[in-house]
Amino acid sequence: MPDTFAVRLRRLTSPCSRSRLGSPGRRTAALLLRLACVALLAWIGYIHLHLWLEGYRQIPTDGPLFLLDAVAGFALAAILLVWPAPVAGLMAAGYTAATLGALLISLTVGLFGFRESISASYVVLSLTIEPITALALVAWTVLVTATPGRRTARLRRTDPTRKGELRCSNTPPPGPAAYGRQGSGPAGGQPPVREGSRGGRAGRPLLPW
Coil, strand, or helix at residue 121? Predict the structure, then answer.
């Protein structure tokens, strides 16, 4: 039975627990990946704050957006650090993708009348770390959301075909008594052999098949 929307929403908004992550190796990987994402988000926020202080605040429209990017980067880094819920990773990934998209638009056709140069400060660095940050955030969100081990175990417990196979495998093989009581067949518990005629030869024993 598929999960309801409320169950999925609660799973996205609840912080990942040790029991949900499962094995210690998976918990360690999730922790290290989350800390790396926190550091990268803070780095993106620092870059935008530095550029805003260096003179980008004088640019109409784009200047306040640089300050907004800086504040959002620091805020999302703090949220992901103290509230490791999958929805926090999704919000941070959306922020990073939007920041990268704005930079690409500014480099190509211009954004709000301002066109960025590839040789400007931190442009190449931003083009490098922002895609890495977005991919890392998506990977962390998938890691803490998916629970393949528990789902497989639940399917095995609830699969009626699997239970039927287990019952069949636990059924003991038939013993000699299955062929009849003592005296109804030849010694040793073998199935009786019918006698008759086949091919014009009388008295020849016939096999069961």
Answer: coil
